[in-house]
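Suppose you are handed a protein chain with no further information: no name, no annotation, nothing but its sequence. What can you learn? This example shows the usual starting point.
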Amino acid sequence: MYIGIFLAGFLSLLIFAKNNRTTHDHILVAWLIISALLLFSFYYDFNYTTRKYEALQLVGMVLPPAAAPILYFYVCSLVRSRPFKLRRYWFHFIPFFFLAGSMLYFYYNLEDSQRLVVDDGFIQMYGIKAFQMRNYGMIMAFFSFLYPVLSLYSLFRHKKTLTDKFSNLSGVNMDWLRNWIILSFIGFWLSFILIWSGAFRWIEFETSFKAVASLITLNIAIIGFYGLKQTSIFTNERIQQGAQKETSENKYERSRLTKDESAEILKKVQAAMESDKPYLDSQLSLESLAFKLGLSKHDLSQVINEQLGINFFTFVNEYRISEFKQLIQQPKNAHLTILGVALESGFNSKSSFNGVFKKLEGITPGAYKNSLKQSN
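A reasonable first move is to predict its three-dimensional structure. Written in structure tokens, the prediction is:
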């Protein structure tokens, strides 16, 4: 518990020390703080020398319904192009305030024989059992199941549109976040089993909470490590450019572009790709290219999809592959490795380059280089 609380605080300080903090950074800090408070409530439950206020323990034990939506907010702030506004999502905290408020009401307003008390770190109810106490576990399980599912759905929708928006998927595919959510989901159910095992005295109750605290601490370490490195997918400039909402079905049905206008835009785009080589920017996106060309991202996407029959990802990477083929045959680049030439061509990692090259060319980069040697 000490380690988890310290780690959450330390990671929060590191995030606040970042030069360009964003909304998702602030949301991550909120999640870390709530996780630290939950660990503190565990410590407080079992520290009999300092435990004085049972009401604080009641509030501490209903923190999971507050942490669960923050996980969802974090995902939304990363994968949605529109700015995240907390006021649109305030209702997600209603379950937490309901549980905390009702528990405090029953604690302070019922007779001693009916009052909620904390005994050995677990909420007990003497006399008439309140609704939230009868269903405490089910409520916790429901919200800890609901928000990971919503988060995974948001990530799934995000991933479906990646190749239409980005030329490089590294750092924007959110695979680490998907894996973390799945692990957190498994960790919650494991924690649920441990706590109830302690409640039924199958294992020592204090031991069960120590095990849960260890899982929470591990969770903090994982999200902190990857969250510190995660950058924004959509910059403010791109958010402003792409504020309009598009649907994947019939998204060009009401397009104002004629065939002649689409053809002219395609010529403009191809000329810019040949002369200015914007594809050499490894972070080139649909929004940033549209901004450079003075086009809307909707029009640019439509032209690439309808005129060429490919998505933005393929469109840009075909130019990068072509650049790679030219550079690798030039004598001045003989000292460079395959990866070195790939980086010069606009790719940003070996894995992404190898995957794209094999998909578009049907062979590996190494096999292609060997074929050049044989032909010479």
